[in-house]
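step=encode ok
step=design start
structure_in=
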């Protein structure tokens, strides 16, 4: 079994379903910054507009385990996260690891 683009979207959907939320409830998606094409694929697959997905891989490249914390900090500093927003974070790593989390800001 290999991690695929669909696995990445499935882990996001699992977090949403577990919390009785829908994609339309996401105010900001912060994906692991491994590859811009993957982020864009997930964005398109989930029907999210550009303002609902935060990417910074163009500035730093893949910062591995630090990619989501860096992106979260930047998104907050840039005013892209407001009180009450639902922020979805999703990551994948080497092997068969992937995870997602929802934060009510």
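sequence_out=
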């Amino acid at each position: 079994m290999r991690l695929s683009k669909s696995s990445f979207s499935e882990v996001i959907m699992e977090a949403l379903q577990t919390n009785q939320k829908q994609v339309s409830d996401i105010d900001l998606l912060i994906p692991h910054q491994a590859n811009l094409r993957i982020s864009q694929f997930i964005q398109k697959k989930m029907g999210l507009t550009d303002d609902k997905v935060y990417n910074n891989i163009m500035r730093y490249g893949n910062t591995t385990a630090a990619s989501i914390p860096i992106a979260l900090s930047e998104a907050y500093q840039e005013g892209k996260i407001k009180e009450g927003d639902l922020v979805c974070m999703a990551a994948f790593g080497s092997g068969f690891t992937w995870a997602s989390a929802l934060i009510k800001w």
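step=design ok
step=annotate ok -> The mean pLDDT is 91.
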